């Protein structure tokens, strides 16, 4: 019986730690990911806000989910951030800005037109 109780306590502690980590990631990721102008002629700005310092990865994917650019990867301070995306050499079509912050992912669709 003692080992069952210990296992249950251990599982509860792990679940609590996972919830705390998720809450921390959500707090860090203020999100509000935006791409402007949209549609774009090939030059856009991808912006987002962090409520707390966090490790982030901001990338751009094509319609098939292939990564075509990584705009930033690393630790950033809290606040607003904006990164240029130059897709002049990419074909017209739909693209996806993808922001990863602490296991949380936010996406925003945008178009490149010619």
Give an overview of the whole structure.
This protein has 114 residues and is an alpha+beta fold. 24% of the residues lie in helices and 51% in strands. The chain contains one helix and seven strands; from the N terminus they run αβββββββ. The strands form two sheets. Strands 4-3-6-7 form a four-stranded antiparallel β-sheet. A three-stranded antiparallel β-sheet has the order 1-2-5, with no helix packed on it. Strand 6 (93-101) and strand 7 form a beta hairpin. The termini are far apart.
Radius of gyration: 19 Å
Count of separate DSSP helical elements:
1
What sequence of helices (H) and strands (E) makes up the elements? HEEEEEEE
- What does the largest sheet look like? 4 strands, antiparallel
Strand content: over 45%
Helical fraction equals: 10-25%
Mean pLDDT: 83
Q: What is the first-to-last residue Cα distance? A: 69 Å
Spatial order of strands in the largest sheet: 4-3-6-7
The backbone outline, from C-alpha atoms, is: elongated
Question: Which residues sit in consecutive blocks of at least 5 with pLDDT less than 50?
Answer: 17-29
Write down how many β-strands occur, each being a DSSP E stretch of 2 or more residues. 7
Give the structural class.
alpha+beta
